[in-house]
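Deliverable D2.4 — example input (C-alpha cells):
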C-alpha cells in the first residue's frame, strides 16, 4: 500500500530543490542540501535527484525554429546513412530525448557557427537537438548552401532500449545532389 504522504513529500522535494537552485545558483554543498532536506522532513535523496534535474535543464540551450512548407525540401526518400546526432547534451536533457527523437528531422546549415563554418544543425519538433559530425556536415553543407533558406526534411529515429542516442538519416552526397537537380529543374 502506498504511503498517503508520498505525493506530498515528492512535491516538497521538488519545491525544496527549486528553492535551493534559485538561492544558490545551481551550486550547492551536498551536506547542506541533505541537512535542509532532513530539517524539512523531506527525503534528501529525492531533493538531490530533483536538484540534478534542475541543473541539467539550466545547462541546455534552447533554440526553436519553424519550417514553413515552402522552405523545406523533403529528402526522406533519398538514400541515407544512419548517424548519431552529436552534442545532444548541450541541447536537450536526458528526459527530453524521448520527446525529440522523432521519425522526421530537419537539417539546417549554420555558416556562422563559431566552432565550424560548415556546421549542419539537426532540428526535431521545432527545436535544435544537436549537429551532424564534422565529416558528414562537410559533405552535405555545400549542397545546402546552394539552397539558401531551405531546410532538408530527413528521417530520424528516437531512443531504443537503454541507449540515450538519437539518430538522423543523412542523405548520401550523390543521391542528394541528383535529387536537388531534379527538384530545381521542375521549379524552372
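Example output (designed residues):
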Amino acid at each position: 500500500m502506498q504511503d498517503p504522504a508520498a505525493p506530498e513529500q515528492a512535491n516538497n522535494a521538488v519545491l525544496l530543490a527549486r528553492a535551493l537552485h534559485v538561492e544558490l545558483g545551481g551550486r550547492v554543498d551536498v551536506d547542506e542540501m541533505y541537512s535542509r532536506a532532513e530539517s524539512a522532513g523531506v527525503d534528501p535523496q529525492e531533493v538531490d535527484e530533483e536538484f540534478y534535474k534542475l541543473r541539467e535543464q539550466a545547462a541546455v540551450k534552447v533554440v526553436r525554429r519553424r519550417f514553413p512548407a515552402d522552405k523545406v525540401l523533403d529528402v526522406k526518400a533519398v538514400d541515407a546513412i544512419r548517424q548519431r546526432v552529436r552534442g545532444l547534451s548541450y541541447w536537450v536533457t536526458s528526459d527530453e530525448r524521448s520527446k525529440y527523437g522523432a521519425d522526421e528531422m530537419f537539417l539546417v546549415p549554420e555558416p556562422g557557427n563559431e566552432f565550424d563554418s560548415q556546421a549542419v544543425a539537426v532540428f526535431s519538433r521545432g527545436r535544435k537537438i544537436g549537429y551532424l559530425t564534422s565529416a558528414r556536415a562537410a559533405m552535405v553543407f555545400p549542397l545546402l548552401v546552394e539552397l539558401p533558406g531551405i531546410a532538408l526534411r530527413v528521417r530520424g529515429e528516437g531512443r531504443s532500449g537503454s541507449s540515450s542516442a538519437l539518430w538522423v538519416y543523412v542523405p548520401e552526397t550523390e543521391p542528394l545532389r541528383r535529387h536537388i537537380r531534379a527538384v530545381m529543374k521542375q521549379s524552372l
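Residues 6-24 form the longest helix (19 residues).
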